[in-house]
Amino acid sequence: LFTAVEMAPRDPILGLNEQFNADTNPNKVNLGVGVYFDDNGKLPLLQCVQAAEKTMMATPTARGYLPIDGIVAYDNAVKSLVFGADSEPVKSGRVATVQAIGGTGGLKIGADFLKKVSPNAKVLISDPSWENHRALFTNAGFEVGTYAYYDAEKRGVNFEGFLASLNAAAPGTIVVLHACCHNPTGYDITPAQWDQVIAVVKAKNLTPFLDMAYQGFGHGIAEDGAVIGKFVAAGLNFFVSTSFSKSFSLYGERVGGLSVLCADKEEASRVLSQLKIVIRTNYSNPPIHGGAVVAAVLNNPELRALWEKELGEMRVRIKAMRQKLVDGLNAAGVKQDMSFITQQIGMFSYSGLTKDQMERLRNEFGVYGTDTGRMCVAALNSKNIDYVCQAIAKVI
Ligand code: PMP
């Protein structure tokens, strides 16, 4: 049965992790995978999460099946976070939200549903994008192309190219957009540029799918979420996938969601019924724990304030590390202007280093980033920063 099965290539990022784990270099630093570590190099367990879990443990509950679309209080919390609790879409009941297995699950449910409603549509992802975007939509049966995004020479967004790609897309094309903290480049477009993107999306009748995996890591929870309000104001119907992996440091709990903004409440109930079929035929219903924790935090004013504080601290620490990286590279003798690192936002920096340089970083110094030059600045800390700066300076 399996004699003709070919060996699949290793996942580019998780494969790097395996290589890192096997590396015996005592100075090794993992800047490959997109995970936030604190200044001690530890994965944080947020206090708001601990407090919610403590309360939950005090009154242990039996674990029946959840509804197909997840915990009601969780879905409502996601809706309020994404669209605003008092927003018109939430009040009018025209958002269909389901709990999903991480942000990846949200994307997958949306992709499978879209394949049913727009089977012939093409999908455009940014060039470059998070690796899994292409794979997810391809596996859902779509032809996946790219829209221009990164301009390596300019070190920024090729905005004219971006708009031109959207203008050239056929009506109905599904466009996967990074809501904030673009992965892998770290370059976001400005609010004014979003207005231009939205105008083209509307004029060309494209279907926007916003991937929101880093809300709160850019400029703040509300600031990063403001782009959603712009799409609402434009009168568009669209998809938003949510991930709490990073913002709650709950990577392994797989907590995310999918929200679909519909024309009205009746349409939302039809869409929800179809999303539930996608879920039912994939994994039946979601797990309880992570969703219950996030719901407990988001729906309790004190815990929510604590979460916002802790998320703010992660954001501020990453920004400080960006500055330290720029200063450290200068001090280590790098002549070229590296200040672009502080213009980038979120967890990643597209360093501009070549594949050869990234290989040397790994092999000679045990500093792991992706071959594309992407480094996770959220894994830098006061103990490893000097070593990383020295290593980069040597390969440059
Ligand atoms: N979208 C983007 C852009 C991401 O970077 C990630 C996580 N690396 C995800 C989605 C998936 O998030 P999750 O781990 O919650 O599935």
Automatic annotation (TrEMBL):
InterPro entries: Aminotransferase_I/II_large (IPR004839), Asp_trans (IPR000796), NHTrfase_class1_PyrdxlP-BS (IPR004838), PyrdxlP-dep_Trfase (IPR015424), PyrdxlP-dep_Trfase_major (IPR015421), PyrdxlP-dep_Trfase_small (IPR015422). GO terms for molecular function: identical protein binding; L-tyrosine-2-oxoglutarate transaminase activity; pyridoxal phosphate binding. It is an enzyme of class 2 (transferase). Its cofactor is pyridoxal 5'-phosphate. One of its GO terms (biological process) is L-phenylalanine biosynthetic process from chorismate via phenylpyruvate. Residues 27-392 form the Aminotransferase class I/classII large domain. Its EC number is 2.6.1.-. GO terms for cellular component: cytosol. Keywords: Aminotransferase, Pyridoxal phosphate, Transferase. SUPFAM superfamilies: PLP-dependent transferases. Belongs to the class-I pyridoxal-phosphate-dependent aminotransferase family. Homodimer. This is Aminotransferase. It comes from Acidovorax carolinensis.
